[in-house]
Design brief:
Blueprint: H1 2-11, H2 20-42, H3 56-76, H4 84-98, H5 106-118, H6 126-129, H7 143-151, H8 161-196, H9 205-211, H10 227-248, E1 258-263, E2 268-273, H11 276-283, H12 287-310, H13 325-345, H14 347-359, H15 373-394, H16 400-422, H17 433-441, H18 447-456, H19 468-482, H20 490-516, H21 523-526, H22 534-544, H23 551-573, H24 581-587, H25 592-612, H26 614-646
Helix pairs in contact: 2-4, 2-20, 3-4, 3-9, 3-26, 4-19, 4-20, 5-7, 7-20, 8-15, 8-19, 10-26, 11-25, 11-26, 12-24, 12-25, 13-16, 13-23, 13-24, 14-15, 16-17, 16-19, 18-22, 25-26
Length: 656
């Protein structure tokens, strides 16, 4: 009887993981992340838990779920414990939710669409240059409601929802369309990236390790029974706790993990920063990629220094880009070639997708995809029609709409690729789409209405250090390993996480702003020199300085693209070629300077381990590096909870 039962369990259809329990748990985690992350960085001004692609908040909550809740249920009765497939669904919902409340959307959306009114002064000329070109449906029209958003509402008035209904009802469909188009695009590319190219996806290795089972039948997962993992966990726990305690008691020494070395007469700076998560993620990356990341990053510092010493610079002003515009355009050229080469490599697969979508070719199987290829292709096209109409109605001249959307997808695809292949937890595109458009064609070709519309795109395509596309890509890698061919129901779990996160994060930011006053919260997201001002300073700068195409930018883009193409051809034709093109693509991103030392350290450790201990020692040491990642996010999360309980503020110990 027992043998037959075991056989039935072994041969049973794999679970989809989407159950009422997993959906409820995932929705609760999405709510906690979408309200807790803004509260943590706005009111407590502590560690950012939804800042980067590392999704610290998701890992922190998932750690507590698996170690405490799942293990506790298993000790009571094994049948009560979560199945691995359910845990994967919960985690996917959590990482999707991490991409929305902070740097991904909400904490930019609400301040930006109200900042054009609140921060307008005679000196900045927004009232003359910007406001006449803003459609009334895009921003709140009640200045009193906007004032209370930034300064706090009088006692008893609460949130002025009436003033926000129209702009939110016009912005949310656009945001949902962008998110759905991202999901469709990743569905189209999933098989190419995960099955054919077998990208590493280092950022999902910690949750995968946490849900793995063995044959012991014990409630506690084997990952948590590894003493080596707990050794790695203890290192950032100690360092982070020392930093946190120093903020409470200044007589307790802190631990310095970051410094800088000035180079080339102070025209460049090499950051020496130890990031435990990046050390762990980079250990999981191919040694060629890790070597190329730190090698090209150092080479880029040399280039910056040489440019500074000889006085080679561009007068162009760019936003959210490296200090030197020439380097930003160079990086954009590398991104363009990387993405186009990736699409060319995937041409056979993309041809199959098109045949399935448009002809219904039965020889092509898409049953293991999140969406059918037909839904993905037509959904992507439909969402782009929605975005095109929205941007045109917002003021963007019609010919520029497809150019902007192309640059936007290039940015999202390029960053998602380097996250999936290189394990880069903190990254931005070297050039944002708005800058790419005006630099390529000139602001005189666009006009004031288009420039204003481009300013508002800063909401979703400027300082984005996390977004839904990357989270879904990582989620599909998890689903590939754990959910087998039962992915269709996962789409609704992702959709639920998006809806819960948007609704709860909007409510949280509105509540805290009207309760405390936005200007009393996070200075970057609400201050006159931060996120709310950047889009409109961008617009006024361009309108006050009319120009044509930036030919220096064109030349720099061509040079960067040519170098990237040469690196790709060398890697394709010469097996001995040691440099991976990904390293050059990320070298121009300003954040790369801060992770270079950690990547170098991981590369050096891995090379030594592989040389003297072989693959066996590499795999045995792996739990230690996973523990480094987990320990950093746990200490950041637990001290955020302690800060909330004690009322401590400005205790930010998070680092990538």
């Amino acid at each position: 009887m027992n043998d037959s039962s075991n056989q039935r369990e072994t041969t049973a259809e794999p679970r989809s993981g989407v159950s009422f329990r997993s959906l409820l748990t995932g929705a609760i985690m999405a709510f906690c992340i979408s309200t807790g992350a803004p509260y943590g960085n706005m009111v407590l001004r502590g560690s950012y838990m939804a800042l980067d692609f590392s999704t610290a908040g998701a890992i922190f909550l998932f750690f507590l779920l698996v170690l405490i809740v799942h293990t506790g249920l298993g000790l009571i009765d094994r049948r009560l414990a979560f199945h691995p497939e359910e845990l994967i669904v919960v985690y996917i919902m959590a990482i999707v939710s991490c991409s929305i409340p902070t740097m991904g959307l909400t904490e930019y959306l609400l301040p930006i669409i109200s900042g054009a009114t609140y921060y307008a002064t005679v000196e900045n000329e927004w009232a003359v240059l910007v406001q006449p070109h803003i459609p009334s449906w895009m921003v709140p029209q009640d200045f009193t409601a906007v004032k209370y958003f930034y300064e706090g509402s009088p006692r008893g008035l609460g949130i002025a929802w009436a003033a926000w209904i129209t702009p939110l009802l016009t912005w949310i469909p656009l945001i949902l369309g962008i998110y759905f188009s991202m999901i469709c695009l990743i569905v189209i590319l999933r098989k190419q990236w995960i099955v054919r190219e077998r990208l590493a996806f280092p950022l999902v290795q910690v949750p995968l390790a946490m849900v793995e089972d063995d044959d012991s039948g014990r409630a506690l997962k084997p990952f948590f029974r590894s003493w080596l993992m707990w050794c790695g966990f203890a290192v950032p726990l100690f360092v982070g706790s020392m930093k946190a305690l120093h903020n409470y008691f200044n007589f307790i020494p802190t631990v310095i993990t970051q410094t800088a070395i000035p180079l080339f007469r102070n025209t460049a700076s090499l950051q020496i920063a130890l990031s435990f998560p990046m050390l762990g993620f980079s250990y999981l990356v191919n040694t060629e990629i890790a070597f190329s990341i730190w090698f090209f990053s150092l080479l880029m510092r040399v280039q910056e220094g040489v440019f500074g010493v000889v006085g080679l610079s561009s007068p162009e002003k760019l936003w959210y880009a490296p200090p030197e515009p020439i380097i930003a355009h160079q990086g954009m050229g590398a991104f363009i070639i990387m993405v186009l080469f990736g699409l060319w490599t995937a041409r056979d697969h993309l041809r199959d997708v098109a045949r399935k979508a448009f002809r219904g070719d039965d020889t092509i199987d898409d049953s293991d995809e999140l969406l059918s290829y037909r839904v993905a292709v037509f959904g992507f096209l439909g969402c782009n029609m929605l975005m095109s109409v929205w941007l045109w109605m917002a003021g963007l001249v019609f010919w520029a709409v497809p150019v902007y959307l192309g640059a936007m997808y290039l940015m999202f695809l390029g960053v998602t690729r380097i996250v999936a292949e290189g394990g880069i937890a903190a990254a931005r595109a070297p050039l944002i789409p708005s800058d790419f458009l005006h630099s390529t064609f000139g602001n005189t070709a666009l006009g004031p209405g288009s420039m204003t519309a481009l300013g508002f795109t800063f909401v979703w395509a400027a300082d984005v250090r996390t977004f839904v596309m990357a989270s879904v890509a990582n989620g599909l890698k998890l689903a590939e390993d754990q959910l087998a061919r039962r992915k269709r129901a996962l789409f609704w779990a992702i959709g639920l996480a998006i809806v819960v996160s948007i609704a709860s994060s909007i409510w949280a930011v509105m509540y805290m702003s009207y309760s405390y006053g936005g200007i009393n919260l996070n200075g970057w997201f609400f201050g006159p020199d931060g996120g709310p001002a950047y889009p409109f300073n961008f617009v006024t700068q361009e309108l006050n300085n009319p120009d044509g195409p930036d030919w220096t930018g064109w030349i720099s883009t061509g040079i960067g693209g040519s170098v990237m193409a040469a690196l790709m051809l060398a890697r394709h034709h010469f097996l001995w070629w040691p440099l991976h093109p990904l390293g050059f693509a990320v070298s121009s991103i300003s954040l790369t300077n801060y992770i270079t030392f950690s990547v170098f350290l991981a590369w050096l450790i891995k090379v030594v381990i592989l040389k003297y201990g072989g693959p066996g020692l590499f795999h045995r040491a792996r739990p230690f590096f996973l523990g480094l990642i987990l320990g950093q996010f746990f200490v950041a999360g637990i001290w955020l909870v302690i800060d909330w309980l004690t009322g401590m503020t400005d205790n930010n110990i998070y680092w990538i």
